[in-house]
Amino acid sequence: MATYRIDFAEAIAESKLDKLKNIAFDTKDQIAWSRTGISIDSNDLSESLPEIIEKISSQQVRFNLVSQTFKVLNYSCAACANSAETVLKYVDGVVSSSANYANHSASVTYLPQLTSPQIFKERLQEIGFDLILEKSFDFEKAQNQKFERQKKELYLSAFFAVPLFALGMFFMDWQHMPMVSLILATPLVFYFGRHFFINAWKKLLVKDTNMDTLVALSTGVAYFFSVYTMIFPHAFGHHGHSQVYFESAGIVVFFVLLGKYLEDFAKNRASDAIKKLMELNSRSVRIIQDGKETIGNVENIVKGHILRVLAGEKIPLDGIVVSGQSHVSESMINGEPIPNLKLTGDKLFAGTLNQEGVLEFRVEKIYSETYLSQIIKKVETALSSKAPVQKKVDQVSRIFVPMVISISILSFLVWYFIFHNFDLALLSFITVLVVACPCAMGLATPTALMVGIGKGAANGILIKNAESLEKAGKITDLVLDKTGTLTKGKPDIVSENWYDSAAIYPKILVNIERNSTHPMAKAIAGHFPDEEEINIEQVENISGKGIKATFEGESYLAGNEQFMLENGVKITVKSNASIIYFAKNNTLLADFEVGDTLKTDVKADITALQRMGIKLHLLSGDKQQVVKDLAESLGIDQARGEVLPDQKGDYVQKLKGNADMVAMVGDGINDAVALANADVSVAIGDGSDAAKEVADITVLGTDISTVKKAINLSKFTTSTIYQNLFWAFIYNTLMIPVAAGILYFYNGFLMSPMLASAAMAMSSVSVVSNSLRLKFKKL
Amino acid sequence: MKFKTNINCNNCVAKVQTTLDGLVGAGNWQVDINNPEKILDVKNLEIAAQDVTNKLKRIGFSAEELV
């Protein structure tokens, strides 16, 4: 017996609950009721769930049901399709399922609270089917459509709001002003602002309030009060023209809509991350079957298929080479700039790039299981998080809203029953609601974020979300990766030794190396760019070793240690570094140390970061001694070499136990684990796109001084958000007593709703301009 | 014991394989897909016919014991 908890889409009223408890069910499963949902004790949920959901839904109670259609692979007959349907039906949390044999699909209606498409996939795989998860694409499309709709409504509402505002501000005495205002304000309040009324009503049903309640109440009361004074112009003893507040009602709706739009705009940018990762995947593949090549879709490939990859193509799936040989650039997987030679039996990873040869490999992991897919999944999870500041704002507004309403009612009661003044009572009631309208609070976070994120982009700093931005300012410990972060990440000549200084030899060497596309050879050829062309003969490329060639009857060799030893060349230098040797017959002419060189100005940037009080740690997969030497020369105390990607992650994890806020700076997917473990992850420059998209913060360009700028930006933006919130709340809390008429006893001052809406607009303006001030800060 | 089923083709046989191997043991069962009744023959007599029917129902196949 297990207990399953199922929430309603929204909480229901007590009276409704009593009605639900009287429903007669056929199932013997025990159901426990509450206003927010039900708990079912069941041995077999799949038997009772459809009935329970159906009977409760018929009472106008909604569940968070999801209906989705999936592509299912390996249907071979109608009975198979039926089998898939039944398997899905028996998954706990599935309400109904139907399989369609003709278009290889299955539609499932399920409760996301209890199950997920991933579980459907696993169950189907158990009996030899497979299901394709394409959730992210549809999700993204839906997001975009919603955003476009929102944008359209905002533009449209501006058509009404702008003239309405002008009318209220400058043409107050115009005799047709109330009528025109009414015409302009009506669509704003009841069409564009309909969500506030709907949400406020729904909240009211469960005896709850939020910002929507305040917007609905203030705009509603201001609107109907104005309609009332239009019909009875002398009700409140005003002379000349009737007092209407249509512009307050309309403008409030517009401002709140604007705030919501800005917030979603910032959010929308974040979801671009997934798109970038998806692009690393190649969609069509070359399948080799019975010696023939056919083109297929990567999603239909199963374990054991043999695929062919041509030069310049991406490896579509993880697998093992069965024939051919080539260099494969895996910089997106391991950050290593030098491509690896892949021979029969070597592993290949999806998303990496085949450089020159043709490879055939056996698929080991299907589309949804590859390393790359797992990273994509991680990013998806991260993107659905909420900014910590916003949570605080929500908390405060939870007390704020009922408080404002109580104060406005209280002030009404005091004026009416103690001072017997209905005019002032109604006026103060509306004024309090209008002046406390939370649109400044609504703008506080999104405007600062917009400006902060925008300023970041202009400075080559891409920030994933609000949370990352807030945390970056609090970094105490910074973990740096060596290759690609401190160094250039491309092979370069570090040192060269010539044992024979004849001018002809460099010329011969370069002309030999120009025949190879190997990165080491390119580095050497690039080291002597000005050497003229000479006629080299019998060039022989020995993969994984070097090049053999003939010039004027003499034999020359350029390649690695093994190549030299095989050809009887005596090598004098022995070192751990990558060395390319150049020999004539059996005599060594020169050797080159090929390695990764430091980026310019790294030392100054390191010192600047340390001066900000940040402790630095250096981690690298490179040899222990190399890393130690580098750390010493840069003045970094904590350094460790020969660290595997997993160990980088562990190191960060351990560091988190001792430090307040740990940041990781890296450039490849090999840093992905460490980046994910860190409180703040920073991807740098030329590194792989995938790493950039995983990271909280991406620094474009190769300069780590931008990391320092990112930290400053974070500090400025966060303090702007807090200033904004402070101003928004202070404005409201100071204005509320004034609006309630406290000053009336002191100097006879009574705030009018018009003044209140101006004050409210002022608080919004001050919040927005405070955010804009961020633009001119020097990072 | 014998069952009349809708295990129609070799692909269907492949799909019930994991389930039946687990329940009655590999080699203890056989489906004659050439027979129009698609007869499943189970040689392990320690298993209740009801179990076989239920397990197959869960993965979408019907089986009716022939007495």
Chain-wise SSE layout:
The complex is a heterodimer of chains A (779) and B (67).
Chain A: E1 2-7, H1 14-21, E2 30-33, E3 37-42, H2 45-57, E4 66-73, H3 78-89, E5 94-100, E6 105-110, H4 117-126, E7 130-132, H5 135-170, H6 177-192, H7 194-205, H8 211-231, H9 246-270, H10 272-280, E8 284-289, E9 292-297, E10 306-309, E11 319-323, E12 326-329, H11 331-334, E13 340-342, E14 347-348, E15 353-354, E16 359-363, H12 371-383, H13 388-418, H14 422-435, H15 439-458, E17 461-463, H16 466-472, E18 477-481, E19 492-498, H17 504-513, H18 519-527, E20 537-542, E21 546-551, E22 554-559, H19 561-566, E23 578-584, E24 587-595, H20 602-611, E25 615-619, H21 624-634, E26 638-640, H22 645-658, E27 662-666, H23 672-677, E28 680-684, H24 689-694, E29 697-699, H25 705-740, H26 744-747, H27 753-773
Parallel strand pairs in A: 18-25, 18-27, 25-26, 27-28, 28-29
Antiparallel strand pairs in A: 1-3, 2-3, 4-6, 4-7, 5-6, 8-9, 8-10, 10-16, 11-14, 11-16, 12-13, 12-15, 17-29, 19-24, 20-21, 21-22, 22-23, 23-24
Chain B: E1 2-5, H1 10-24, E2 29-32, E3 39-42, H2 49-58, E4 63-66
Antiparallel strand pairs in B: 1-3, 1-4, 2-3
Helix pairs in contact in B: 1-2
